[in-house]
Amino acid sequence: MKPTRRMDRTVTPRQSPLPHRRSHTHRPRGAGTGGVDVEGPYLRIEESGDVFPLSDEVTTVGRGEGADIHLDDRSVSQLHAELIRRGPYVYVVDLGLSRNGTRVNGRPIARRVLEEGDVVSFGTARGRIGGLPKEQLSPDKVLRRGAAPELTRRELDVLTALCRPALSEEAFVAPATARDIAEALVVTEAAVKQHLLRLYQKFRIPEGQNRRTRLANEVVALGLVRPMPVGHARRAG
What we know:
Elements: E1 42-45, E2 51-53, E3 58-62, E4 69-70, E5 81-86, E6 89-94, E7 102-104, E8 107-109, E9 111-113, E10 119-122, E11 125-130, H1 142-146, H2 153-163, H3 178-185, H4 189-202, H5 211-221, H6 230-236
Parallel strand pairs: 3-4
Antiparallel strand pairs: 1-2, 1-11, 3-5, 5-6, 6-9, 7-8, 7-10, 10-11
């Protein structure tokens, strides 16, 4: 393999089946990119120093050959996470396909808006977000207020099990009971109820009838658990 000079460390993400539009303009070199010309938000892989400019919409991260950002690391799943740009914001979404999960600054997340310098861990592979202008980082922005709360890996497992019975439907009818979730995750029903109580608080679901249904609808609306095709949902059951 031919050696790569330091000044050529910018890596163009792999093309997905539907290629994203990319900007071809460049800003002056900055110290944060290791001397590499990059326009707009980027992810710098800490181990290799490779810099991946983020696409205008969705950049996939994973070990699979089809991922936009390909990470050759066994702790990373084939399709691990997505880095999504919405207007001036960038947020990361863990796709829930790896037991190793995704972390931001060491904390497990399901979805989180990113700030300049945040360290994102996909399994044990780490990258640092850069290229976000300071004016984009105000915590009072609408997107930050509407983002999902930070979740532990177990809380995300509980939400997935909660929503599974109705994932193939447009509207929820009967989310899983605490007993169903406990059986699916091989834990006690009491432990599941404790997780649900914390999740009601995190998502601000008030007491009342159909509390589990309201939580499940909120979770799907935020994109934390995604509807599956009917055939896939049946196989998963």
